[in-house]
């Protein structure tokens, strides 16, 4: 009877990828603290990666390795702190829920002064800023109205990343990633979308997508959001960021991914 039950469970896992993925995620979240408890091992820092990734900031390549500006910066910091990184892919909305629950230790690229829920505020600490990100509007080429400032979009339907923070006066239509938004605007399924400038430029060039890109409507410094349960790491993270900035390492990491990317609209 037990053998039949195990076979039935295996069949369900094969038939429904969502069940399999949820089980694997639960296993990752469970094994993180267990691995950290092993005597003599490095402490584990669980890093949430917004799935399916954000090129050039943080994504998983074809061979399963995590790369990008945030990944490389975190590896330099982790070396200074003597901790091991464990990247866990999650949708933006699930990432926030797992962070609040203490199942994710760190989120990268969080804008300074970002409005957050009370539950998120209570468990969040922030590093000093380590970079700057421009946010832009992408839109269909045939649109004639000015879309360089957000007030022009009041009352209009705008494609946004699910779980992201956007102005309240927009009619948001949520999707899973910036790449999905870029494709929808290119195909005419959405007229307007919001995303990071570097991502928009890369998608338009490498994906050969047809859309216009506005001037940045906001530029903000970005930080690492650290769970309060790992507060002992904050001072060391800030010291490491200071050192890396003085040594020019932060600039080198950014240039590795962005130098040569055309930023002309």
What would you say this structure looks like, in words?
With 265 residues, this protein is α/β, with parallel strands linked by helices. It folds into 2 domains: 2-132 and 221-258, Periplasmic binding protein-like II (D-Maltodextrin-Binding Protein, domain 2); 133-219, D-Maltodextrin-Binding Protein, domain 2 (3-Layer(aba) Sandwich), CATH 3.40.190. Helix content is 40%, strand content 24%. It has helices spanning 2-15, 17-37, 69-81, 92-100, 118-123, 178-187, 197-206, 234-246, 249-258, and strands spanning 44-50, 59-60, 66-67, 84-90, 106-111, 124-126, 131-139, 157-161, 171-175, 192-196, 212-213, 218-227. Strands 1, 4, 5, 6, 7, 10, 11 and 12 form an 8-stranded mixed beta sheet that branches. A two-stranded antiparallel ribbon has the order 2-3. Strands 8-9 form a two-stranded parallel ribbon. A hairpin with a 5-residue loop joins strand 2 and strand 3 (66-67). Helix 1 crosses helix 2 and helix 3 crosses helix 8 (234-246). The longest helix is centred in the N-terminal third of the chain and has 21 residues, at 17-37. The chain is globular. The N and C termini lie far apart (65 Å). The model has no long low-confidence stretch (mean pLDDT 84). This is Solute-binding protein family 3/N-terminal domain-containing protein. It comes from Motiliproteus coralliicola.
């Amino acid at each position: 009877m037990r053998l039949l039950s195990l076979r039935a469970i295996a069949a369900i896992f094969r038939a429904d990828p969502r069940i399999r993925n949820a089980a694997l995620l639960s296993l990752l979240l469970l094994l993180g603290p267990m691995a950290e408890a092993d005597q003599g091992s490095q402490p584990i820092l669980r890093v949430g990666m917004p799935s399916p990734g954000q090129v050039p900031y943080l994504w998983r390549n074809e061979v399963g390795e995590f790369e990008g500006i945030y990944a490389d910066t975190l590896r330099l910091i982790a070396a200074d702190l003597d901790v091991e990184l464990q990247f866990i892919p999650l949708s933006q909305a699930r990432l926030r829920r797992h962070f609040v629950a203490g199942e994710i230790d760190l989120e990268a690229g969080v804008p300074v002064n970002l409005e957050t829920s009370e539950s998120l505020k209570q468990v969040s600490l922030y590093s000093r800023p380590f970079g700057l990100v421009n946010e832009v509007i992408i839109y269909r080429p045939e649109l004639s109205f000015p879309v360089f400032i957000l007030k022009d979009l009041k009352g209009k339907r705008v494609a946004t990343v699910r779980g992201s923070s956007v102005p309240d006066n927009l009619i948001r239509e949520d999707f899973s990633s910036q790449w999905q938004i870029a494709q929808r605007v290119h195909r005419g399924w959405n007229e307007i979308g919001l995303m990071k400038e570097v991502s928009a430029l890369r998608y338009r060039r490498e994906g050969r997508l047809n859309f216009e890109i506005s001037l940045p409507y906001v530029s903000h410094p970005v930080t690492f959001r650290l769970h309060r349960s790992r507060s002992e790491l904050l001072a060391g993270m800030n010291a490491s960021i200071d050192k890396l900035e003085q040594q020019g390492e932060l600039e080198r990491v950014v240039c590795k991914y962005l130098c040569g990317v055309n930023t002309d609209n």
